[in-house]
Design goal:
Layout (H helix, E strand, L loop, with lengths): L1 H24 L27 H36 L2 H4 L8 H4 L27 H15 L3 H16 L10 H24 L18 H9 L8 H12 L5 H9 L12 H10 L17 H10 L9 H4 L19 H6 L3 E5 L8 E3 L2 E5 L1 E3 L3 H14 L6 H12 L3 H9 L3 E3 L4 H11 L13 H11 L2 H13 L3 H29 L3
Parallel strand pairs: 1-3, 4-5
Antiparallel strand pairs: 2-3
Helix pairs in contact: 5-7, 6-7, 6-9, 7-9, 7-10, 15-16, 16-18, 17-18
Amino acid sequence: MVAVFNKELLSWYLITLKLKETVESGLPILPEAPSSARSIEFPEAPQHQQPDNSLQIVVNGDEEKSASPESEWIISIKEKLEQANQDAAADSWAKLCIYRVPRYLREADDKSYIPQSVSLGPYHHGKRRLKNMEQHKWRALHQILKRTNHEIEIYLDAMKELEEKARACYEGTISLSSTEFVEMMVLDGCFMLELFRGVAGGFKHLGYARNDPIFAIRGSMHSIQRDMIMLENQIPLFVLERLLGIQLGQSEGLIANLALRFFDPLMPTDEPLTQSDRNKLESSLGYIATFDPLGDQGGLHCLDVFRRSLLRTGPQPVPRAWIKKWSHSNRVADKRRQQLIHCVTQLREAGIKFKKRKTDRFWDIKFKNGILRIPRLLIHDGTKSLFLNLMALEQCHLDCSNDITSYVVFMDNLINSPEDVGYLHSHGIMEHWLGSDSEVADLFNRLCEEVVFDINNSYLSSLSEKVNRYYNHRWNTWGASLKHNYFSSPWTIISFVAAVILLVLTFVQTFYGVYGYYWPR
């Protein structure tokens, strides 16, 4: 029994050995012999005979298996090149308008770019800390359907039509499926519209209770407004227009006005203008025109509409030769050359005066006859986040000018110390509700960290040239020093006048003494 078992094992070993040799030599394989066979013969294949097809497949498969790591690597590279080719297509960037804030900007203050209460759009969708607001989004959608007697399918179908266009507005690949993306657009868009309409016409009119935790005018609304103005927390304006159009039947131009009214508490100025002041301002511009927040282009999103409302008929920068001569014409913006103007303390020493300019356009700064006129600026706890997101939009979006960035850099140059803030505050130019003047100075000094700004394209470059020319004139500095040292108070004026009188009397006395000596009577 043992001998038979060993013979069977030996037979299988010989079969395996011959099969291995056959595969390696490329010879055709004969059908297997019964396990009881004592020997197996493999016929010689002719020299010019091609291997059997079945054998060829096995051999090729073995070769492919041995070369698979390199093949997969090449395939991976080709896939990446194909993706790069798709990304390089002009159409893939044409509609991009809602960006992820670059890492170099958010390193200074990451919190100012991340919503704390509510997420809108895909970038922060599903974050755990923002889950509490989801139930209120569903309440808003339910209230809209109840109020309009619409079926949810109407809104879903409308968003399906806009899905591809909406996805193109966001940067990078959005991992949400089609149904998840459409649901998010409907939910977030309807939530925003309820807030807009509630602030404009009253939440009670929309069917919400007076003590509603979200849809009521209370302290939490400020936090929501601050989140909704962030660059990474935007919904395309055409999505909101379509959703509002379904509810009202028409929405052309209405969304922008509703958004501006909703975000009005975030405005950095509250300077009221009388009708006569407004007429003078408009006449100085050379025309009479009402403000259209969308202008001649379609708005991108709420942050873009808010920015346009701040700039109104925004300034057009005129590059100046005095700045251009410092740099090569084609170089990128240099972080080392962002000094437009000297600080308040230094300008005062040169005799430059500061006065508040009465206009609701906070960026409209003027300089004439040694007087720098700056509109009133309000600083509150949301100012830092607001300016950072406005500047991030200008840094990312090619079609945006750098007007907000120019203004912030200019103010950063003016403010170097708490004393500078205190002087501007005493002249009504700056109002703040922060803890101290040093906090305001620190705020402006930090706003421009890592911001790349080209002074060649600043709308304030011409004004800066005039101020610096005045500053560099020695007579102005001497006159200012004289006034500061001898005319800063009534007592110093009296002392100066007395000293002058004493000097004159001494001169007269000396004159008559000399005159009497040489020409006696």
